[in-house]
Write a structure and sequence with these properties.
The chain has 211 residues and is α+β, with helices and mostly antiparallel strands. It has nine helices and four strands; from the N terminus they run αααααααβββαβα.
Length: 211
Amino acid sequence: MTDSLARRERLALCDLALTLDSSAPTLCGDWDLSSLLAHLIVRERRLLSAGGIIIPKLARFTERAMADEAAAGVPAMVQRLRSPLRTPYALPIVERFAQTMEYFVHHEDIRRAQPGWEPRSLPGEDVDELWSLLSRSGGFLGRGLPVPTVIARSDRPDARATFKKGPDPVVVTGPVGELVMWVYGRSAVVDLRFDGPPEAVARVQAASRSV
């Protein structure tokens, strides 16, 4: 494979978007397909307007920029996403760490919001890449978990990552793609197993993990 996983997920997302209506649902709260595409464009191409993604006080500027982008329609937005600008996001190391999860999760946000979705069977090297990125992000992604938590690959039970340190952790085991979607706060996941004290398991399952 010559293209990075981030690049391939970007292109797959674009291909899928062209098969759907602009109002097609996603797993991103109230965002429809048009809103999600606009978010991706603003995040990459309009850096001065993208501050609202992480700073609530700037949200109105980001929302205005997204509305501007969405007005162009899905085909035009897809064309812009297919050809990313030469921004810091285009640097290989930045693309890997800032774009791989972004595009994998948002591709799945679109896929899994449509009727009849099924988990994808990913190539082994892509699974390993997702695991590498996910497992090293535990301190950040697990900051909102209420109790000690560990994630584990169901295809390699020896591969574990601590997301919140502490005794008697809840262990969440599953396919790597499903673990990614769960950690990123999505409910449309399958084949996950939660092991640990019942009260702790219930708290982990009920916790907000939106990223």
